[in-house]
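1st attempt posting a full record on here, be nice pls
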Amino acid sequence: MRRPATFIHEIDLMTIVNIARSIRCVRTVRRIACRGMLVVIGALGLSIFAMGCGPVWYLDGDLGERIAAEQNKPMLVYFKSWDSSLHRNMKLQVFENAAVKSEMTDTVNVELEFAYFPEHRKRYGVQRSQVAVMCDPQGRRVASPIDLNPVPTPEVFLEWLRKAKAEARPPPNK
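the predicted structure (as tokens):
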């Protein structure tokens, strides 16, 4: 039996309709991809812009030591307990203080979870969490650690930070 000519015409028409739909789909996908790229580019731009706004925190002690040695900067090591309200309060009340942030921009800041870094605890003589230690650029502890339990006022922490940085700062090259 012979097929009517309209059947082939309908198939071609359906093919054309499907192609048109896929073109619309491709446009939609392209539109979504372009918007996604704009969001990523915007986020990168904001993060680059914000880099100079405050201290940078490293979560790896060995990396912090290498960076401190390379940049010849003192290193602040903060032993935290991540699930502690003392840690949250320290972050909100002290580390977010404008004067403290400003003072910490010229140190290499390392934040270590007390439970997971026993070799660093032993190296710096830290017995419990919520303690900050200042080190010279070679990673040697120079100042007495400050106990952050209870959370000190920003002024008390700032005073300790300035004294500790003065001890840890390398002598000027002559």
